[in-house]
Design goal:
Strand content: 15-25%
Order of helices and strands: EEHH
Helix content: 10-25%
Distance between the termini: 18 Å
Shape: flat
Strand order of the largest sheet: 1-2
Amino acid sequence: IEKPVLIIRAKEIKKDRDMMDFSASPTWPGLANEFKNGQEIHFPNNTHFLPMELPDEISRIIRSQL
């Protein structure tokens, strides 16, 4: 993929977590590095529900990519 790819990721998942625990990001931390033009924005103190926790910040990030 030649196009820029932006990964927005929440805190890292714990190995012993319950499968229904959405408090962390299921996204692999190395994913952005797999793309030629990959970039990651990591929110280590937030949960999988970033758009609900930080609506203004997430909206700003999405708008900046248009």
